[in-house]
Structures are given as structure tokens and as C-alpha cells.
Amino acid sequence: MATANSVQFITKLTQKTKLAGARLADKHINLAVTGLSQSGKTAFITSLMNQLLEVNENAQLPFFSTHREARIIGVKRSAQMDVTTSRFAYEDAIEGLSKYPASWPQSTRGISQVRLLIRYKKKSGIGKWLSEDGCLTLDITDYPGEWLLDLPLLDMDFSTWCEHSAKEMRETKRLELSNQVRTQIDKLDLNGPSDESLLQKIAENYADYLKQCQLAGFQLLQPGRFLLPGELAGAPVLHFFPVSQSQLNMQNVDLNKLHKGSNIALLVERFEQYKQRVIQPFYQQHFKRFDRQIILVDCLGALNRGYHSYHDLQKALTWLMGSFAYGSSNILKRLFKPKIDKLIFAASKADHITPDQQSNLVKLLDSMLRDARKQLQFEGVVTESTLIAAIKASKHGRTKIDGEDIAVVQGVTADGQNLTLFPGEVPMQCPLPQFWDKQKFAFPQFAAPQLKAGDALPHIRMDQVIDFMLADKLQ
């Protein structure tokens, strides 16, 4: 009689065999949906699922070629392979959008996954002679954007991280925000006997400083778990913080010759444990298996918050893209060492601007990514830049002001007020810092639209994103 362990082993082996078979047949996509805080990841996945599940009903997807050719037989949700990861809360999101007043889907607080099976009529090739129908497995992973920027820490030692973090704490915009925690760190006796209670208190204040930076519009914030600790809340592995080089010099600390049992020795130990026991497992379990990726970018939010936010977002994106395994893929690579071979950058919240400004928004996004993109092109990765509104919350119209016919955006504000306005021009590249001293951007925020029974979610360009990511596997 089979034991519980042997049954579990056989089940896992069967799942892995099926997955390997799908990869070998090139009928499996592991999609990463990434982006920093407030970029709209949860709304995007909700809309992506909704468009596919409603593909043969009320979805409006004119640029999704497989749908246009009437080859989609049906789409359904299936049990995800990783049963230890949270199930993406699609039903909760749809329920929130269906009630009155509607509410936006809750932001990501931890990792979640979803699997969709897409059954379709084959178009051409040898496979059509074997079977007229095919099935593509689409695995989608959602996770907090705050955790993304931890990945570069794997290539840093404590000294390098301290140098980077301490420098940022003293930048003009962050200086006042970091004043309290810098004072506490400067008073710490690094060579003194380790005081776990004191280190915890300072680490918690450092986390508060990072949260204040986030509220002020900064994006390049580490460690990410200090912002969203998840199951690690209160764990000692989060009780560390950066120390400036000047403080190390003043207290005659040599990081290569640490006194065992000292405060500085424990800080270094916690930093290394964070890398080994938090970041590395996260990277190995999730990021290394992705083969397609969507990066959502809230360009408009960064413009609203000022030059410091825009510049920080640009730095963060460069850091982020260096953490993924990019490169052209073939069958053997897909089976044994998957790499991301298709990447789409999407400027989110396109419904907050008028149609005539959409091309400017794409050019602005391209200007942010210019340097980071060069390496991707060298590696042979197919990239695309676009803009989207995963869930469209406004309408576009025209009105006359002083006799001039202009495009406007119409929507409902968070407090229920109807709003009609021309939100302004989107720059094609980042303005000079002085621009924000004279004028500020104020792109609006809209309340969630109410989803009527039987309707698909309204969107802008989701069909183009779906086509870019899936159509070549639905032949």
C-alpha cells in the first residue's frame, strides 16, 4: 500500500513531467507581472484574466489576432501547480468592481499565482496534422513590487550596501526624512556587545524612514521586506540597517576583522542572512523560471510627485532589469534553463490623459528606458513599449473653451464628484528639475468603474498586450 509520502512524490513527479512536456511542446508560458508600488499590477492581472475568460462573450479585443481569427475555443482557470503560494484573488477583485460604489482591487501584499488553460484551434504546422486543437498553459505570478529591488543585493556585500544606502539618506530630498534614524545609528557603539533589543528598535525606525520615503514619491527603496514584511513581520532577519563609512572609520571598525558578539558583527550577519534566507529562495523559486515578462510603469504618478520621484523611478527600473535572466529562447533552454525572451514595457493609467497625448506617454517611457534597453537588445530579447489602462475609469470627449475645440477626460473622483478636464500635455522626455519649481503636473485619480453583470472590463490596449505575449504560441 502506497504511503502518503510516496503518493505525494508521484503527484509532484507527474506534475513536473506534464510541465516539462508542455515546455518541450512550447505550449507553456510562465509570465511575470512586475512593477513598483502603485503601478497597477493587481488591476492588470484582474483585467488580463477577465479579457481571456470573457474572450468569446463580451470582451473587446480587436487586436488579439487569435481571437480575431475565431480560433479561441475557450479559456478556464485551472489549479495552480504551486499549492504553497496564495491563489490570486480574482473573484474578490471582480466582486469589488461589481458593487456600488465600485472599489479598486486590493494592492499586492504577498506572492500569488493563477493558471489559465487556453484551448484553441491550430492554424498551421505539423501539429495540426496530429490534432486540430491545442492547449496553452498560462501561469501568471503576482508579487509585491517592493520586493523586486532586493534582487541586486545578492551581488552586494554589507559594505557596498551601506555605502549606497548611507549616501541616499544624505541626499537633499531624503536628509530631513532620515534625520531621526541617522542620529540613532551615529550613537550606536558598533564594537560594543550586541544588543538585539536596541538593534531591533533602530531597524524599525529605519523601516519607518523607508515608508516615509515611499510616501514622498521615492521608488529605489531597500530592503523591500522592510516596507512589506509579510510573514517576516517582527523576525530578527529584518533587524539590520546601514552604517556610514565615516562612522566605521571613527570607531575603527574593520569589516574584514569583526569582533565576535559585537553590534557590527550582528548587523553584518543579519544582512547576509537576509540575502541567503529571504532574497535567494525568493529568486530561485520564482524569478529564474519566468520566460515572459510585463513591466508596468506609473510614469504619470512620478511626474505628479516631482523630479526626484521620476529620477528615482528611472534608477529603480535600471536596477530591476539587471536582475532577470534575459536572452533568446529555444526548446532546450525552455526545458532546462528558461530565460525571458519577450518583454513588454507598459505605461499604466493611460485613461488619465487625452488620446492626443498617448504617443507622448510612450515616448516618455522610452526615454526612461533608453540605457537599460541597450543590453536587452544585445541579448536578442524582443521588446515592446506601449501604454495601457488595464481597467478604464474615464471617458474621452471634446469641449469648447474660449471658442477652441479641445480634447478632455471625463470621470468620477474618489469622493464621487464628476470631473471634466484637460489634464495637460505629457512631456516626451523628463523635464529639467527647474520645471517643477515653476509648474507642477496634476494628472487626476479616478474612482473605479462599476462592472455591469455580463460585461467585460473596459480597457485601453489590453488586446495588444495579449497578442504580443500569447499569439505566437497559439498557432
What does this structure look like?
- The protein is an alpha/beta fold and 475 residues long.
- It has three domains: 254 residues, Rossmann fold (3-Layer(aba) Sandwich), CATH 3.40.50; 130 residues, no CATH class; 44 residues, no CATH class.
- 40% of the residues lie in helices and 16% in strands.
- It has 17 helices and eleven strands.
- The strands form two sheets. Strands 1, 2, 3, 4, 5, 6, 7 and 8 form an eight-stranded mixed β-sheet that branches. A three-stranded antiparallel β-sheet has the order 9-10-11, with no helix packed on it.
- Strand 3, helix 4 and strand 4 form a beta-alpha-beta unit.
- Helix 8 packs antiparallel against helix 9, helix 12 runs antiparallel to helix 13 and helix 13 runs parallel beside helix 15.
- The longest helix has 23 residues.
- The mean pLDDT is 89.
Defining key terms:
single chain, about 475 residues, alpha/beta, Rossmann fold, 8-stranded mixed β-sheet, 3-stranded antiparallel β-sheet, about 15% strand
Catalogue the unreliable spans: none
Structural class: alpha/beta
**The first-level CATH class name of the largest domain:** Alpha Beta
Please state the average pLDDT score.
Answer: 89
CATH fold category name of the largest domain: Rossmann fold
Give the overall form: globular
- Could you say how many structural domains there are in total? 3
How many helices in DSSP terms? 17
User: Approximately how much beta-strand content do the residues carry?
Assistant: 15-25%
